[in-house]
User: Which sequence fits this backbone?
């Protein structure tokens, strides 16, 4: 069964360092998303991406964050200079149709710990 | 603004007992509502969704949910819990106009033998 894969499963980094989280969406999907969950809190929308551009982003997704689909298969989330409060589980998701009424397929998540 | 509230961060039931996980929503427009499940060390998986068709929605693994506009609720139920149902369950809402899902804080279901 097709699935969304994310790497790394867990990354520990020092505050101020750059981090790249990688995702391989399901191959024929067109819509891509990043969500995050700070421990004990809600799963929060970060950004959606379609047709090689951001379609929507939340207030959390500030200039420190960027997304890219560099090679037609990977979908990456970059945090330029990590802060302690960026520690969270980051989920990638993809959809074959717009997520509005369709199903989002989520990866297992990448846990980021910022020290 | 849309939101969902999940009452009870932890729910424990015996195997074979009724499962009831509560979700209330707030939306200024007719909502689209979803239940996702997360098994240990896995991603979020869609259980079922309501998108303005039948108010009683059946999902995978014997779960169902009923949309009640008068109560602004979308509670998840299963008549008979199984050990394999132990997981975290998330209710989510969208307004149908954007890709963004608004999630609740989740309810961890424990099933005892």
Assistant:
């Amino acid at each position: 069964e097709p699935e969304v894969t994310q790497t790394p499963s867990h990354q520990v980094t020092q505050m101020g360092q750059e981090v790249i989280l990688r995702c391989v969406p399901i191959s024929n999907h067109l819509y891509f998303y990043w969500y995050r969950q700070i421990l004990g809190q809600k799963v929060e929308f970060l950004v959606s991406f379609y047709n090689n551009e951001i379609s929507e982003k939340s207030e959390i997704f500030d200039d420190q964050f960027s997304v890219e689909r560099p090679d037609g298969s990977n979908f990456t989330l970059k945090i330029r200079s990590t802060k302690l409060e960026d520690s969270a589980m980051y989920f990638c998701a993809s959809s074959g149709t717009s997520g509005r009424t369709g199903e989002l397929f989520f990866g297992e998540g990448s846990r980021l710990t910022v020290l | 603004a849309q939101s969902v509230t999940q009452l009870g961060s932890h729910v424990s039931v015996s195997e074979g007992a009724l499962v009831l996980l509560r979700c209330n929503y707030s939306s200024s427009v007719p909502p689209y509502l979803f239940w996702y499940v997360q098994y240990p060390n896995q991603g979020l998986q869609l259980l079922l969704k309501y998108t303005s068709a039948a108010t009683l929605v059946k999902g995978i693994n014997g779960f169902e949910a009923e949309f009640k506009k008068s109560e602004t609720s979308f509670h998840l139920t299963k008549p008979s819990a199984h050990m394999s149902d132990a997981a975290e369950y998330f209710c989510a809402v969208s307004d149908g106009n954007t890709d963004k899902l608004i999630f609740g804080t989740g309810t961890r279901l424990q099933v005892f033998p």
About this structure: The two ends of chain B are 41 Å apart (CA to CA). The first strand of chain B starts at residue 3 and ends at 7. The CA atoms of residues 32 and 51 of chain B lie 5 Å apart. Chain B touches chain A through 24 residues (CB under 8 Å).
